[in-house]
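1st attempt posting a full record on here, be nice pls
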Amino acid sequence: MNAFPEVTKVKYEGPQSDNPLAFRWYNPDEVVAGKTMKEHLRFTVTYWHTFRCTGSDPFGGDTMLRPWDDGTESVENACNRARVAFEFFEKLDAPFYAFHDRDVAPEGANLSETNANFDSVAAVLKEEQQRTGVKLLWGTANMFSNPRFMHGAATTCNVEVFAYAAAQVKKAMEVTKDLGGENYVFWGGREGYQCLYNTDMKRELDHLGKFFHMAVDYAKEIGFTGQFLIEPKPKEPTKHQYDSDAAACLNFLRAYDLTDHFKLNIETNHATLAGHEMMHELEYAGMQGGLGSIDANTGDLLLGWDTDQFATNYYLTTQIMLVLLKYGLGTGGVNFDAKVRRESFEPIDLFYAHIGSMDAFARGLKVAANIIEEGAINNIVADRYSSWDSDLGKKIESGQTNFAELETLMLGKGEAAGNSSGRQELLENIVNRYLDRM
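the predicted structure (as tokens):
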């Protein structure tokens, strides 16, 4: 198989290189903050956008040139596509990939045939993993594309659709385990509502909680020890998604006693749709012990939908890496849930897109590591909160005082001590300075 004859293997050539098929910043073996870049970043190629995206949109049909794909939903074509995918992973030097069940294998006439199709392609995936050393970061089930899921999967009003979804996740978990997947992801594609007039929200959320507990139980039954992940998104395709942002997801997990079993997979474009910066969502999940992985993409701020573009903005990647270096990713990764633009239709564009974003994250990693190592931001933050290190601050934080005692204190003082500057502009200048140094 040689689907990408222009590419041998993408290698690191350094910042001065003008080779578009080489890394300028991503050097997998370079040690940064105690680990190699490869260990920090755990880059992951998504099967769906990279090998199933056709370029169609609501205003026009397919544009992508994919010579290896015969356009059919046959198992033979799916197996061939899998081999091409691993050629891409290998030439890109990507250590991980991720898939939905329907990305890799077509649905059959019934569930039994669908499962058989999945097994046939999974056998090829396993062979290719063994041949290349590329690993599965996570698997998941597509429970949003088929019309049966029009009202949702775990939150559907149709009990047999719930049962079908359970069977589909059961199979996807089995395949993920067999392929050595390190995580299993739940994205609630249609787990939400369009209209509250026809929605029993409590019942739907109760059913979602039961569904996740069934998944936890089955993981124990089959010995799957990978991390379960939930991916927040506030809207699309439903008007309101139940997993709307990190705070909503973590509240749901606490309410349904699932915090011991799930972490979050945070996506930049989804954070934007929720009215948050990516840094906010990462920090909120991280400080609650719920950060598990990220979807590395970005949206167009002039467009109000999920455009899933490749992230190449150094400010964004630096902000992301500042948080990831603080909390870590565990078994998660930097997952390129991103697609080339409709107009970037040639196969080689897949390499240009991934290389550029891998470099952007590598540079963000180096900048963030330098900022943390030299305390350029942390020292200013520590100084801003220094009053809380006083005896009074320690008493409040340890719960050793009360309103009456604090009132007595302030009646004696008459007024609070003056505030110090937030130094926002200085901090923004500091980040610029570190970017300039690279």
